[in-house]
Structure formats: structure tokens, C-alpha cells
Write a structure and sequence with these properties.
The protein contains seven helices and eight strands. By secondary structure, it is an alpha/beta fold.
Length: 281
């Protein structure tokens, strides 16, 4: 059942002012995350409303990081930039935007959170009883990695299967799942107003960002680093560059008209004074 039909049968559709408010809150989330990314890890480049497939499923924010490497070819510069990480951030202004309508998410999400709390306790047991599963390449315990999949603990594997089945029931067919399955990003984040979503409600691997009313961002849950193919990273980076086209044209005073002509227009003013915005109500 579609979102529109669901509202037609059971609810009064939201009024236009509320839709406009939701859009402003989502833009506020994007703004906060862009500042957070630049302040904490300074990506080589990023864009908003970035296509993840050839023509569908836009990510709210895409970012990439590159470092210089030796150019192995005889032509060109001695060093070239090589991307080593990409990230995608989805921004949801309302809790209901995070899951599809007509699912049993309200019933399943608390159960999913409970299962994840249970598996954390089992992982602690595994660390105590199966120390051989600890990676040997880490010096400090708080950064140690554990190969839980090789554990002989049957409860752990039962919980993993139960979590996977429940996550499939909640997230299958959603935009989040389709973006994840595109495998273009090493890190995936969900950004929401503070307290809107809890860490235990996320699909495995996603990180969680809370944005408060002053547009300050807190990383509540770190994402898992995923294995991303170099060609997939390049695909996302090209789409990031394409997504910045409209903003570049606007800042430089260039516009393509509906008739197809490309004309010069007045450039927007760019005030430099720092401001203190807030998340719209």
C-alpha cells in the first residue's frame, strides 16, 4: 500500500505548512552535518542530493577523502590523488521518515533494540571465554577487534540470525537498504534531530548522528567500516561532482533556461559574517 493511499484511508494528509517545516528541518540537518564533516574530518569533497544509482535514490550528503600517492606512469605529475574513503549521510527530519509506512515497525523496533542489547551481553561472554578470537594487531583493549563470527557460542549465532531476519522485515525495500546495497560508501550515517532515533533501532553497520536545536552534531553511534570497491568509490565521486553543478552555476551567475539557452544572471551576494542558526521547529 502506498504512502498516499495509507493517508487517504486512515489519516488527514499533512498540511502544506507542516511539509514546508519538515523540508526546512531537513535542510537544517544537512547544514549541520556539512559543518560537522568539515570541522571533524575535512573531506576532500562533498555534495548534497547525490545520485547513488545511475538515475535514482539520491543521498542527502555524499563525501569522499583522498590522499596523494606516487604516480606509477611516466606522464603527468609525480603524485596523484587517490580516494581511500567515501561516506553517505541520510537526513530525516521526522521519525516516520526513517521507515516505510504500513509496516509493523512500531512493534518490531523495540524487539530489535532488545535483541541488540542481548547480543552485546553475549559478545562480552565471548571475549571472556574465547580470547583467541581477539585480533592481535591492536595494542589497546578499547580498540581491539574480535572475530565473533568464528565463535562457538550458539546463542550468539541464533541472535545474529534473529536480528538479520527482523532487520529485513523493517528495512527491506526502503531507501536506506537500497543505498546500502549500492555499495558506494565505506561509511553510512543517519542524521536525525536529537533523540528521534535510538542506536539500537539502526540497521547493522549504520552510524547515528544527533543534531540539537543549535545545529551541533553528536556521533551517537559510529558506523562500521565497509569494504568498498575502488570503482564504486569513483562512481560516487563523479556523482558528487555532478550534484555540485547547480550550486556552482548559481554562485558564478550562470543559468540554463527552460528553452535550453545558457545565460548570465546576477550573482547572489555572499555575506561572510558568522551566524548562529537553529534547527527550525
Amino acid at each position: 500500500m502506498s504512502r498516499q493511499l495509507f493517508f487517504d484511508l486512515d489519516f488527514t494528509p499533512p498540511s502544506p505548512p507542516r511539509s514546508a517545516s519538515t523540508a526546512r528541518r531537513r535542510q537544517g540537518l544537512q547544514r549541520a552535518v556539512l559543518r560537522w564533516l568539515e570541522a571533524t574530518d575535512s573531506p576532500t569533497g562533498f555534495g548534497v542530493n547525490v545520485v547513488t544509482r545511475i538515475s535514482r535514490f539520491r543521498a542527502d550528503i555524499g563525501a569522499f577523502w583522498s590522499h596523494p600517492i606516487r604516480n606509477t606512469h611516466d606522464e603527468g605529475p609525480r603524485q596523484i590523488l587517490s580516494p581511500f574513503r567515501t561516506a553517505i549521510v541520510q537526513c530525516c527530519a521526522e521519525r516516520d521518515d526513517c521507515w516505510p509506512d504500513c509496516t509493523r515497525s512500531d512493534e518490531l523496533l523495540p524487539k530489535l533494540s532488545s535483541l541488540k542489547e542481548e547480543i552485546l551481553a553475549v559478545e562480552a561472554q565471548i571475549r571472556a571465554t574465547e580470547p583467541q578470537l581477539r585480533a592481535t594487531n591492536t595494542l589497546f583493549e578499547e580498540y581491539a577487534e574480535w572475530d565473533y563470527e568464528e565463535s562457538t557460542n550458539r546463542t550468539y549465532h541464533r541472535l545474529k540470525r534473529a536480528i538479520a531476519k527482523m532487520e529485513h522485515g523493517i528495512y527491506h525495500g526502503t531507501k536506506f537498504e537500497r543505498i546500502r546495497s549500492a555499495a558506494l560508501a565505506d561509511r553510512l550515517y543517519l542524521a536525525v534531530p536529537e533523540g528521534t532515533v535510538q542506536p539500537g533501532e539502526l540497521a547493522d553497520g549504520w552510524g547515528l548522528l544527533w543534531v540539537d536545536d543549535a545545529l551541533e552534531v553528536a556521533e551517537v553511534s559510529a558506523p562500521h567500516d565497509r569494504e568498498c570497491l575502488a570503482s564504486n568509490r569513483l562512481h560516487l565521486i563523479q556523482n558528487i561532482a555532478s550534484s555540485s553543478r547547480a550550486a556552482l552555476f548559481s554562485s558564478c551567475g550562470v543559468r540554463r533556461q527552460s528553452a535550453g539557452d545558457v545565460v548570465f544572471v546576477r550573482r547572489p551576494r555572499s555575506p561572510r559574517q558568522a551566524i548562529h542558526p537553529s534547527l527550525p521547529d
